[in-house]
Amino acid sequence: MIQVVTPQHMQAIDDASEVPLDELIARAGAAVARAAIRQLGGTYGRRVLVVAGPGNNGADGRVAATRLRERGVRVAVVDALDLPERLPRADLVIDAAFGTGFRGGWQFPDVGATPVLAVDVPTGLDAATGVAGPSTPHAVRTVTFQAAKPGHVFADGPARCGDLEVVDIGLGVDRADALLVDAAAVRHWLPHRPTDAHKWREAVRIVAGTPGMTGAGHLATTAAQRAGASLVAVSSPGVDADAPVEALDRRVPGFDWYTAVLDDLHRFRSLVIGPGLGREEHTVASVLRCVEDAVVPMVIDGDGLFALAWNEAGSPAVLVDREVPTVLTPHDGEYGLLTGRRPDDDRLAAATSLADTTGATVLLKGPATVVATPGEVPLIVDAGDERLATAGTGDVLAGIIGALLARQIPAHRAAAAGAFVHGLAVQRCASVGVIAGDLVEQLPAVFTDLLATDA
Ligand SMILES: NC(=O)C1=CN([C@@H]2O[C@H](COP(=O)(O)OP(=O)(O)OC[C@H]3O[C@@H](n4cnc5c(N)ncnc54)[C@H](O)[C@@H]3O)[C@@H](O)[C@H]2O)[C@@H](O)CC1
Ligand SMILES: [K+]
């Protein structure tokens, strides 16, 4: 997994390093030159323009210019603080104007359609949050050093950075502030089906859907089945026989259903509660009883999160007393309900603070999803795309995580693996018109691919 380190922390690592700054700059600049040659597809007859600023970012760019000249590339270097009226023509522009030391107020010049290779970050992109400035270029590639920064992953980062290359320049990272989840990690986390498998071994209990909203129960159930649950029992409070094919239909009353759910919960390995449950007062009460008394790992999603936010204690503090793992899956609005304010641009900090106050695993949904658990390094999943912002996809994710918890994967990894698999599923779907059920259909192929690939 790629390590993610905040710019502030990277500065501290830099300060503590025994490698002299000049040497770091030499290594960084050489890596930028190599990336430029790859981008140009050669050296002979190629022209490169380096926009170099007054700080170390500019120094990286000037070293790259020297290395490129040595290889026969025609290089022009312009000073970011003294730009000529007309820029020299080039096949590639290297943006070495400013990096993490940028303070705003400087405009990157218009380079038309010429591709831009960014050093560390495209100038003006906030390396801590990924928020771009007004003239931040859209780079085709960004070369950064030692670790990715949150700004490469969140907000405008992916669109402005293009392909991200993380180069080892010999700085020892003591601890990552987050890790970017990849297929190799998820493959490693997925357990093999045990030889003593029986149908109750990885059984998932789901409470989702209400009259008129049974789709949520269907989606969560079929997703759990396709994600490897050995058995799924589903209840949609107040609904008669409506279980999807091959799931157990556990009818429960429309009110005070917690007794019926808790009665035989010991037979299950996880509980998914919340999708499409509605927001009635009696629903809130039943959800809270389950949170208090369910002694299996639990995913609380959708209206389950609403119930947590509106419990009489006035906060999600009921979670702190749970002795088994809990996974919360808020989007920004639900995060706002739980905490009183929506997450700000620092999404790692937002997810971590809710995890710390609740003791739960928090999966904060977004274009890059963050998973935070007390005592664990946060995980970031950027496998999905904007098509996941479609009704019902959250119900699918909740079901997948429920199955992975039932398969005995620890909550932190189960949540991240669930988000990763969910992202791969949407990538396999047709380019337009994706509906949540399509994700479920892709799950067997996603798991097959994941387990088949060597890495
Ligand atoms: N450990 C690391 O990550 C390493 C980072 N390196 C590079 O060092 C960079 C950070 O270097 P610096 O801290 O020198 O920061 P920058 O190179 O981003 O620039 C800071 C300088 O620019 C000036 N400045 C900032 N905004 C301005 C504006 N709007 N108009 C005019 N001047 C402005 C500042 O006064 C300061 O002199 C990184 O982005 C990276 O490229 C490498 O050189 C080596 C190691
Ligand atoms: K830059």
TrEMBL record:
EC category: lyase
Required cofactor names: Mg(2+); K(+)
Biological process terms in GO annotation: metabolite repair; nicotinamide nucleotide metabolic process
GO MF annotations in UniProt: ADP-dependent NAD(P)H-hydrate dehydratase activity; ATP binding; metal ion binding; NAD(P)HX epimerase activity
SUPFAM superfamilies: Ribokinase-like (SSF53613), YjeF N-terminal domain-like (SSF64153)
Enzyme Commission number: 4.2.1.136
PANTHER family: ATP-DEPENDENT (S)-NAD(P)H-HYDRATE DEHYDRATASE, ATP-DEPENDENT (S)-NAD(P)H-HYDRATE DEHYDRATASE FAMILY MEMBER
Function: Bifunctional enzyme that catalyzes the epimerization of the S- and R-forms of NAD(P)HX and the dehydration of the S-form of NAD(P)HX at the expense of ADP, which is converted to AMP. This allows the repair of both epimers of NAD(P)HX, a damaged form of NAD(P)H that is a result of enzymatic or heat-dependent hydration.
Entry protein name: ADP-dependent (S)-NAD(P)H-hydrate dehydratase
Organism: Ilumatobacter fluminis
